Amino acid sequence: HFVFAMHPQFLLGFATSAVCVGILLFIWPPKRKLGDDRPPPGPSSETGDQVCEGLWDAVGNTPLVRIKSLSDATGCEILAKCEFMNPGGSIKDRVAKAIIQDAENNGQLRPHSNYTIVEATAGSTGISLALLARSRGYNVELFIPDNVSKEKVSTLSTLGATIKIVPIVPMSVPTHFMHCASQRCLSDPLAFYANQFDNLANFKAHYSGTGPEVWRQTGGHVDAIVMGAGTGGTLAGMARYLKEQNPSLQAYLSDPPGSGLFNLVRRGVMFDKRDTLLVEPIVPRSFYEGVGINRQTENFAQVKLDGAFKCSEREGIEMAYYILRRDGLYLGGSSALNLVGAAKLARQLGPGKTIVTVLCDSGQRYATRMYDPVWLETNKLVPNSTELEFLEEAIP
Predict the structure, then answer these.
(1) Which pLDDT belongs to residue 122?
(2) What is the mean pLDDT of residues 285-301?
(3) Which pLDDT tens digit goes with each residue over 240-272?
(4) 3 state SS of 78
(5) Cα–Cα distance for residue pair 22/264, rounded to 1 Å
(6) Which of 66, 195, 244, 249 could join 199 via S-S bond, C-beta 3.0 to 4.6 A?
């Protein structure tokens, strides 16, 4: 006390030192163990700034990109979800995850318990199942139509799935690939039929995931969506959710040759014999894989659409190469089909609208078909357009 009284400058210096030490203690980071600076594991956030707990949590939250070439050409904002950026390379990751999770919640599957997931697929769902199911200790057995690309079959084999390729036949024939998958599960208590076509976990994946993502990414500014349908889950789930947010939103189908869905939407009749697709002995029936069907699935029935477009193989090929040249996007057949539908819808609605579609997978799975010069020449589909003159008039 005496010293402080006699030397006030010492008191000032002491106080200053104490304040500095306090500040250092406050800002100096505590001693950490190696790895303590990593964010906690958990589902990927809306901004993708968290560490995912394995492949499972990496599904979804894909970018929504502006397709500049089509937007500039049509006067509409044409946006597309980059579903090929899912860990399994396609939008079917969402479906596979939802079906497995739903089955586990219902007690139909138990991880690492020797269960086998059986599915009828054109390839992409099989790839997603093989990856996600394997990560949870399941076996995978797949029934695949014989028009699936070699790339998909090779990938499925590498991933360890049991593959059974069956001829393309009408649904009324017992050897249809969907009937084969269903029959496989009847006598085996450890076999689970994923049934992506009629399992509503498919629809719910897009109602609770893809749809809300689009609404958030557009800030609620979306006038229409358009895409093809195989199982119908993506279109129905997204349309249902977005229409609930914006009742004036329009939802359209983009349908390939041979599918009866266009007639169902436009005329109320599933099958029109004018659209019968003959299976040629040499040429594959269509390069559009996993899209188009001749029955109404439980997933597709979940929403009422506002219209539909027919899209030819020629339009799909031309669009794939147009987008590759203009936007640098290397897309698969169904993605090209969806962009054909988006361009047609933009012309129908007129400038100023925001239209959303999905890019289901990349062109890597179709390299020996739609990106192979010999295949294009054999099928008389060599692209030769420079602008959008290849787009056909929409059927009134």
Answers:
(1) 75
(2) 82
(3) 999 999 999 999 999 999 888 999 999 888 765
(4) strand
(5) 74
(6) 195
Q: Give me the sign of the Cα torsion angle 333, 334, 335, 341.
A: positive
Question: Which H/E stretch holds residue 358?
Answer: strand 354-359
312 neighbors 395 (Cβ within 8 angstroms)? no
Query: 110 Cβ partners below 8 Å, 6+ apart?
Result: 104
Kindly list the strands in the beta sheet with 307-310, ordered across the sheet, starting from the edge strand earlier in the chain.
64-66, 77-82, 354-359, 224-227, 250-255, 307-310
Cβ neighbours of residue 49 closer than 8 Å, sequence gap 6 or more: 39
* Chain mean position to CA 334: 10
In what helix (H) or strand (E) does residue 321 lie, and over which residues does it extend?
helix 313-327
Rounded Cα–Cα distance for residues 140 and 234 (Å): 23
Q: Which amino acid is at 185?
A: C
3-state SS class at 143: strand
Q: Say which DSSP state 107 is in.
A: T
pLDDT in tens, 336-349: 999 999 999 999 99
Residue 9, pLDDT score: 53
Beta bridge partners of 253: 227, 308
Q: What is the pLDDT of residue 88?
A: 93
Is the pLDDT at 27 greater than 50? The verdict is no
* Helices marked H in 106-210: 124-134, 150-158, 177-184, 201-205
CA distances for 182 relative to 103, 115, 176, 179, 193, angstroms: 16, 15, 10, 5, 6
Higher pLDDT, 73 or 294: 73
Which stretch, 169-183, 201-215, 285-299, has highest mean pLDDT? 201-215
Q: Which structure tokens are listed for 232?
A: 């119908």
